[in-house]
Structures are given as structure tokens and as C-alpha cells.
Amino acid sequence: MSRGATLDGKIVVITGAARGIGALLAEKVAARGGVPVLIGLEPGPLAEVAARVDGHWWEVDVTDADRMAETANAIVATLGRVDMVVANAGAASGGTLLLADPRAYERTIEVNLLGSIRTARAFLPALIAAKGHFLQIASLAAMVPAPLMGAYCASKSGVEAFAHCLAGELVPHEVTVGVAYLSWTDTDMVRGADQLRGLGDMRKGLRGPLGKTYPLEPAVDRIVEGLARRSLHVYGQGFLALIPFVRGVLPGLMLRVGRREIGRQVRQAETRIRDAGQLSTGLVGPGGQAAAASAGTGETS
To answer: What confidence tens digit (pLDDT) does each residue in 198-213 have?
Structure first.
């Protein structure tokens, strides 16, 4: 893949930028000549990343519509405009609907889906003024159903559909919209998911490309290239570009071919969740803990 596109002088807002994909994306944006603007819940890590990339940061919860609107206005007042927004902030939890902690389950959907919608709404005036670009970070989970990940899959399918609808709505305003997909990538969130009772055990049984955890930097390189080129779709791992061709048959195929194995693994997962208690299905990783604290749900992992 050519790596020639630049982001010279572009003001690029990145949500969920305290760590993982967002933090490295800020570094890559700066390396392409852009000005990263970090949004997140963890002031310490945000300040460290911003200092490293000579960027700016704001502490704000993406699910707080009023604060997001205030933040968007403050960024425009400070920097003059916003050229691009990457809706990257996310949370994840694991567990069956029957046994999962309801607060963590619903917070996952709130952060991933409503947080992305509120991010887009807050920054749309600035993006329209700049004829800018909005990039939504989705996931393989938007295309492939995964037991014990109902909240995450639903939220990522939701943001994918939302972004595709938004792309059409913004055609008259000359604003472009892209969707980025990633498989299991080496972040705090994925490492936290692997430690969950039930979900972590099930993931150990996955084979082939779905069973791998991929390095972070090559995936983020693909994302920043797609951002610079204002691509409609960006695939963090190459094999993901093939999934859209078969996604329609995957749910039925999985249940027909793997029904017995799925049933066995789900039964085992439910036993482990019952043994460990509901909190074992909470939001994962340091970012998940910050999202839980922001919602007032307490410790969840």
C-alpha cells in the first residue's frame, strides 16, 4: 500500500485517544503533518500523548451530548476549524444476555453507538464548514456475529449502518464519511477481553484469522492512510476486505456447521460466569474502567 498521502495542516479530532488505537493514531497523524486533537476520559494519559505529538486535548465523555457540543465549539474557537474527526472511543464487555451485567452491557452500546452519534452531531457544523471527513471506527464485530459479544456486535453494526447513512446525508455538504474495520488488535481492550471469564476462554478456541491477535501499528498505518485518502472503507487487516462478500451467509453457516461446538462453549462460558459473578462480564481494560466511572456504574472489571 502506498503511504504517500499527507495530512499537512489538517486539524484532526480523535476520540478515545488516551491509549491504544487513538493514541497511536494521534502519533501517525502528527507524522503526516496533521494537528491531533485528543478527546477522552483519562487526563493523565491524554496530556502525555498530546505532549508527545505537540497536539491538544480535552477531557470529555463522548456520551455527554452537551459537553461534546461545548468541546467542539471550544476546539473551533481555539484552532479555527476542524478538518477531520475520528470516532474511535469505544468500550467492550463480554457475556451472554442472560448473565451479563446489564449496566456494562448497556454502557457498551451507549459509548460505542450513541457516543459516535453524539460525536458526529457535535462536530458536523465544523466539518460542513471545512468540507471535511468523518471516520467511524467499526470492527469485524459489525460483520461477524459472536456469542458473548452481543452488546459489542450490536453497537459496532449500529455505527457501521449509521456511518453509511451519514455518508449519504452529507453528500450535498461535500463532507465525506468512512468506516474502518479491525479484527482482534493488540490493545488494552483486547487484552482485557481475553482476561474475562467466559469470553476469554471462548476466544482461545478460535482458529484461523479470527483466532489471532494482530499487531497494533500496521492496523493504525492502514487507518491513517485511509483517513488521509478519505476512503469509504478502511481495513485494518487485509483479510477483512473479503468478509463483506460472505457476511450475509455467515450467521446461518455458523449455526449449521458449528452449532454443537458453539453450544458447548457457551455452556462452559455460562458456568464460568456464574462461578465468577456478574462483575466478570464488565467493561474491560483501563479505558473501560474510565467509561464505567464516568457513567457512575462503579468498578466493572
So the answer is: 676 676 666 677 778 8
d(CA 212, CA 235): 16
235 is annotated as an active-site residue = no
Protein fold of 11-238+246-295? Rossmann fold (3.40.50)
> Residue 278, class by beta-carbon neighbours within 10 Å (0-12 exposed, 13-18 middle, 19+ buried)?
middle
Give me the residue spans of the domains in the chain.
11-238+246-295
The answer to whether the Cα torsion of 112, 117, 118, 124 is positive or negative is positive
Structure confidence by residue, pLDDT tens digits, 154-173:
999 999 999 999 999 999 99
**Contacts of residue 16, Cβ cutoff 8 Å, sequence gap at least 6:** 22, 39, 40, 62, 88, 89, 90, 287
Catalytic residue among 152, 181, 214, 235: 152
Positive or negative: CA dihedral 75, 84, 114, 188: negative
pLDDT tens profile 249-273: 888 887 888 788 888 888 888 888 8
From residue 1, alpha-carbon distances to 11, 221, 236, 285 in Å are 24, 10, 12, 32
